[in-house]
Amino acid sequence: MQPWRPDPGLSSPPSGGATRRPGSRLRRWGRGARRGLCLLGLWSACTAWAEAPVLTLGVVEDSAPMSYRGPAGELLGFNIDVARALCRELARECEFRPTRFDTVLEDLRQAKFEVAAVSLVITPERGRQILFSRPIYRSMTVWLSAAGRLPQQPQVRVAVVGGTVQAALARRRGWHVVEATTNGGLASLLSSGQADGMLAPMLTVFSQMKKPELQTLGLSVQPYDDPELRKGAQSAAFGIAPGRHELKSVIDAALERLDRDGELDKISSRYLPFKVN
Amino acid sequence: MGRRQKRGQSIWFFSLLALVFALLFGSVLLLIDFKQREVIEATRRMREEGVPRIVGLQRLGRNLEQLRHEGDQLLYDSNAGHRQEALVIATLLANHPSLQEDPRAAGLGEKAVAFLTQAESVLLRDPSAAEALRPQWAPLAQQLSLVADEVMTEAAHLMSQDLRELSDQAGHARYQLLASFVLVGGFILLLLYSLHALVFKPLLGIHRGLLGLNARSVAPEAAHSGIREIRSVQNAMGSLHRALMENENVRAQLEFQANHDTLTGLPNRRHFLAQAADECRRQAAAGQPVCVGMADLDFFKRINDSHGHAAGDAVLCHCALFLRAALRPGDLLCRYGGEEFAFLIIGLDLASGQQWFDQLRQQMSGQVVELPGGLQLEPQTLSIGVAALGAAGLEEALREADKALYLAKGAGRNRVVCQRLEGGS
Q: What is the ipTM of this complex?
């Protein structure tokens, strides 16, 4: 194999042989320039693909059906699929980071992730700490207990997940609160007799009621209507790191497209018993 | 006059036209913009209000169907766990804001959940009661389906209505756009016609007038224009024509002075020679004979000496008038110098020429010259030398004629001597 040598025609005129036509060098330069531009374009496209910006999202890992680990440890759930659809819509790569209900706001403030893919009920108090995306679905607070018991009754122990609006409400009302760190913990509190009822978002209650240990307790479900919860508590949204208004704009626009195009409905049908939008 | 001129100024007319056009075009643009905004606003309303409302109704319809399905599940499934799950879902559904916001669905949902809750409590005690409960559930289930259908139909109707409104808006915008284009197009045509009639056509007339403008033609006629600038150019063209005519007159005078003798008005020698050379060429080409003659007033010096130079001048003028009058058409005559005259006689050979000159001499000798003071002089006589134009040319012929004149003088004057025919008559 002969070693590669540069084409002498590119740097100096040929010393002999066939005479080149006057325009040939210009044409070769033109071809070279075009190839260069093509390569540059490909390089740019490859770079853009390889360097697709990452969107970091905080997720709760045991909050079925919103976000949980599947049998193989994979992340599943309504919020997870919405987050993935959101990343596709934004042409960004999703990077999920674990969080918990009771730390999610602090994690957002500390910029551990940009978006909390967690069903956060929109409240004015939270709104002062973080940004909210446009509402993703409408929720309501449900009281699950044996028939005839109410959370405001003095002897009733109310199970809540720490960091939720329900926990905040229960504390403000001065109820007997038993706090769990995860949704799964709520069922344990009830089945073990440590709590008499749970105050939780409707989809959490729906998910927990699938557990046999709760089905045998003969619990009844009733919506809990409270004026304080009614103040914006009907809507759940993703949280966005404070100050990231430009990120909120693009996320809101993307969620609006996903909602309009029916993508949110498709995801909802996958995990939820009815249309919650 | 001033008012008329002001009215005729193109700057005012076209400024007014431009202002009207600008106002018209601006109004059209505003109208188009307004309609486009309406279309955009209708699209935005449809996207931000219509579509969510339609999607919301579709979801409500599906939720009502889901509620009916959960009721069926509760009444047809013997598994207590499944029944409880169905009741939970039905309870959540009936209380969900999506149902509660719609008055039709809210009441129906609460009624359905109340029935299902009571049914479940009955079934917990007596599972065989399902048979009896199902007919009671059937009307509620049917009502749920009917409301669901109604809601879905309303969604379809809303979509159709929104699309119709959007289509109407777009259609109106299109017609207005077309009408605007026609209006603007018409105005542009009017503008172009005005430019053609008031500016371009008069300018073309001026162009044609300038192309045909010369001192010998009449002044170009220009149609009256309402535009002051055009009228100015037309007036300038008239001034130019007058200037051309004046220049031509001056030039003609100068040319005459350069070619004629100031005293007698006859062509001078240089002019005669130039004219005669041209004429000789023409006659030679035509094969016509030509003869030349040189004539000299006899004893002219005596008149100057006796009566003064003014009398001499008067005699010269008199002779010049006489000789010019005697010429035939086409013949040439000039004052060759002093009291000497040269002739170019066309169509006569030497013999005929001699005869013609002799007649001339005789007529001259019968003329009495009257001076300005009334003094009458004796008739003047001429000595004439004649020569034929030969192959040697005009100058040679004149020299020959001059020689013959010299001979005529020498022979006693008042006679015609021919170049070859010696002697006088």
A: 0.75
